[in-house]
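Please decode residue identities from the backbone states below.
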């Protein structure tokens, strides 16, 4: 049974890597909406493999390193390439430098996670790379599904967002992990999940999935550190 759970967790991690790889290929081919969706699927798969590993208590050094290396591709390289190829039509040195800082911060964040023993299990220190990648992918998704010409403020907003995410990933800010979210909502978690499913379904139907996902990630990004701090002080 333990071997089966370990195989399932590693399989999901491998599928997450596949989505990250597909996102890169799709970005290079100019299919930005599909590339964004590939990263979003990778976000879901990353959450599932972590839950299986923790709940079944089959986490291993191999699984931890495998997951981190996959995260570098799916939430480091893939969002960087997606954002750069979509937002900037020509070589842009400052944008390239900012996106490199994001990638460097993502790698440092994952290395720090791998070598740190956390006393508490309900939060991460530093913004998870999964969320950072989701923020960038959802930002692109807002514009990629519509036949619109990007206004001048979009590249500036994008690079400022990239730098903010880079800073938060290596910061000491505390963010809920899935166990912490379950602890926060308790018995209401099923209602919250159902509500999110309905909201996302309606957003997809009304072609507002990009802005909806971006707002969900933004709510987590802004409010999670304050909620964690308050709960830990009780």
């Amino acid at each position: 049974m333990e071997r089966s759970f370990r195989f399932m967790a590693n399989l999901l991690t491998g599928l997450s890597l596949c989505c990250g790889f597909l996102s890169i290929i799709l970005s290079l081919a100019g299919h930005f909406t599909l590339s964004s969706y590939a990263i979003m699927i990778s976000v879901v798969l990353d959450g599932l493999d972590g839950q299986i590993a923790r709940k079944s208590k089959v986490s291993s050094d191999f699984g931890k390193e495998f997951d981190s290396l996959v995260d570098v591709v799916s939430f480091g390289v893939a969002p960087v390439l997606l954002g750069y190829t979509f937002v900037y039509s020509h070589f842009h040195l400052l944008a390239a430098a900012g996106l490199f800082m994001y990638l460097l911060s993502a790698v440092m964040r994952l290395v720090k996670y791998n070598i740190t023993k956390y006393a508490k299990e309900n939060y991460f220190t530093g913004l998870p790379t999964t969320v950072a990648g989701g923020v960038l992918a959802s930002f692109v998704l807002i514009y990629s599904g519509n036949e619109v010409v990007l206004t001048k403020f979009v590249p500036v907003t994008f690079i400022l967002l990239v730098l903010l995410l880079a800073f938060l990933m290596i910061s000491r800010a505390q963010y809920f992990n899935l166990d912490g979210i379950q602890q926060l909502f308790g018995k209401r978690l099923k209602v919250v999940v159902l509500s999110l499913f309905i909201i996302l379904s309606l957003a997809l139907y009304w072609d507002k999935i990009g802005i909806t996902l971006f707002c969900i990630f933004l709510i987590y990004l802004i409010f999670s550190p304050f909620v964690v701090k308050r709960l830990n002080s009780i």
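Observation: The chain has a mean pLDDT of 87.
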